[in-house]
Amino acid sequence: xxxxxxxxxxxxxxxxxxxxxxxxxxxxxxxxxxxxxxxxxxxxxxxxxxxxxxxxxxxxxxxxxxxxxxxxxxxxxxxxxxxxxx
Amino acid sequence: xxxxxxxxxxxxxxxxxxxxxxxxxxxxxxxxxxxxxxxxxxxxxxxxxxxxxxxxxxxxxxxxxxxxxxxxxxxxxxxxxxxxxxxxxxxxxxxxxxxxxxxxxxxxxxxxxxxxxxxxxxxxxxxxxxxxxxxxxxxxxxxxxxxxxxxxxxxxxxxxxxxxxxxxxxxxxxxxxxxxxxxxxxxxxxxxxxxxxxxxxxxxxxxxxxxxxxxxxxxxxxxxxxxxxxxxxxxxxxxxxxxxxxxxxxxxxxxxxxxxxxxxxxxxxxxxxxxxxxxxxxxxxxxxxxxxxxxxxxxxxxxxxxxxxxxxxxxxxxxxxxxxxxxxxxxxxxxxxxxxxxxxxxxxxxxxxxxxxxxxxxxxxxxxxxxxxxxxxxxxxxxxxxxxxxxxxxxxxxxxxxxxxxxxxxxxxxxxxxxxxxxxxxxxxxxxxxxxxxxxxxxxxxxxxxxxxxxxxxxxxxxxxxxxxxxxxxxxxxxxxxxxxxxxxxxxxxxxxxxxxxxxxxxxxxxxxxxxxxxxxxxxxxxxxxxxxxxxxxxxxxxxxxxxxxxxxxxxxxxxxxxxxxxxxxxxxxxxxxxxxxxxxxxxxxxxxxxxxxxxxxxxxxxxxxxxxxxxxxxxxxxxxxxxxxxxxxxxxxxxxxxxxxxxxxxxxxxxxxxxxxxxxxxxxxxxxxxxxxxxxxxxxxxxxxxxxxxxxxxxxxxxxxxxxxxxxxxxxxxxxxxxxxxxxxxxxxxxxxxxxxxxxxxxxxx
Lengths: 86, 751
Prior knowledge:
The structure holds 2 protein chains of 2 kinds.
Chain A lengths: L4 H22 L1 H12 L13 H33 L1
Helix pairs in contact in A: 1-3, 2-3
Chain B lengths: L1 H20 L6 H4 L2 E5 L9 E4 L4 E4 L3 E4 L4 E4 L7 E2 L8 E9 L5 E5 L10 E5 L4 E7 L4 E8 L5 E7 L3 E6 L2 E7 L12 E2 L12 E9 L5 H8 L17 E7 L3 E3 L3 E10 L5 E8 L2 E4 L1 E5 L2 E10 L6 E12 L6 E4 L3 E6 L2 E4 L7 E9 L5 E2 L1 E11 L7 E11 L1 E7 L5 E11 L2 E12 L4 E7 L6 E9 L9 E8 L2 E9 L5 E6 L5 E6 L6 E5 L5 E6 L14 E6 L4 E3 L3 E10 L6 E8 L4 E7 L4 E9 L5 E10 L2 E12 L7 H13 L7 H23 L4 H18 L13 H20 L1
């Protein structure tokens, strides 16, 4: 049975979405490494409460990077699904 | 009946009598485990006691006195001790006839140093002439207690094994003590007449028929040694002939400083021993010798001994050999001392005592070839025979003109290396310099040095540069002129950092200027130096091929992650393959952030492979792997660095709030509890307002639920709301839940 045009577009869209999601997930590990590297004692030294306020702020931004990244990925996925399939 | 009784009694009497008068003989069983037997029969005038069992001479200085069988030995002079050259392998019997000679507080025999060595033994006589026998079983010294040492000889025997230290007197068991299940093997020899391994030499002990077995003799064997007070002595030939025969030694009777000397010892040793090693002792220093073995003949060599200036004089040397087999160690034997005369190495201006001329310098006027005298403004000579690093230096100067300077060397038969540098001049003849390194002998080298009058010469500077116009330092430049058909050196030297060198040359003649330096083409310039400066461009030797040492080399490193956890074991490895170059070596070195070496591993497999190292990440903050490979004389290296930190669980939003709490506690931007609570309040206020505005949830219950959830999050979960009644009471959370519960109950009651 031949799938109609909309069905084909949805299937391609689903495949692209999965590919995009996988690509985003692959970035998580290196992102974690980068965050660890940035937080290390010879870099920002985030575990040290005596660092400057500016450095602390940078640490907080670094901390929020991964949740923000995941949030953005999930948000984009939600938008894509709602836009394509709803 | 009575007759029968009398007959029985008669027979028993005969048996008893025979038992009293029967004598023991040395039977084969006494040979079993026998390590050493000193008959001590030598008479006065000799100080060598012959070990009848092994055929080893043992030196025991002091008295030779009447013993139980033949002569005995007494430590009356207390000058030295002999040692038995053996230890034991965990079980032993020591037997000797002993008696006192009036002195007190003495050691009869001993192998321990301070009494803490497991496996050591000692017989000690105290001030009351009582003897205690000690053995160390690993947990401490065990002993059989004091007993009088007789004035006349008694046979004292000590047996020791893992469980028991026993003493026998005159063949009869006397006393024992239990050991703690161990009597470890001990390699230190038993010293006779001293304590502490040869120290505290004694004066109060007499001995005869001294023997050691590496087993415990049984009671009847020990009784047999007593032999009804007659004693028993070793019979038969030594089981082993003398340890070795020295066939020859090769060495030079005399040697000079800075030479390398070789020494050879050829011995034939007894087949009782399957191995022999040797050390070479020269001038009090030990050197390990190499051995070439041919059946029982062994040649030891020590080659290349550097003779230093400090060794000048007569030097004694000898060899110490160590003969071993499966059961015997510590059989050390020295050769006799040999002598070698080390001659001083002297170079200098010939005089009454230094008379062997090696080089003679004379001077000529370059302009007319007439003989000249000259001053030797400075001269420095570095000289050596074989080893350049052991060179000696001689300097000399002479301010008065002399027709020649003759330098001599001693010893006369030596061929020497001479690195000479002379600066010479005369009034009206500018100074010239002569540098030369060569080999000289007592066939006197005649060297003519030329001077040129002031009016006949000019200073010519040669500037040596590269093709890139850069000055080249340390270029060796010689300036020659043909005199009587022979190219003769007028000067030489090395360029300075400016690449220049100046000669005093005659501008009327053609000169040959030769410049050379490793890595550059040698240039020969033939010209008449009429100008004060010339430039010579040295072409660099071009390497025809450029190698790519990375060709066909592939590598990877582990661990694969970039972040490591502290105090965790990781296997670091380098996987390297090379399918083009043959590797000389490859490996890696791990260091921490301060550069401390944490470990390394390498391999010499030509095609590569995997080298690993298991180490803990400890408390380091970084670990760097410097990995490398060597091929074709080329060293190539790379580095990889791992960050090391505490265990964490990723970077969820919790990390953000954890850090936020820590920073707030530390006062980030001057925030305190109240201001943070205020910020939280504003955040909750805005959030609830936005939710109500955007979703239409405006009922009091919905708003209460939103507030309660957010307050619980910020107060109870994240602890960001002030707690005036203590950290244990999240008052904001409690109040919000009370409000929610109360409102819920009210709504329920109304409905």
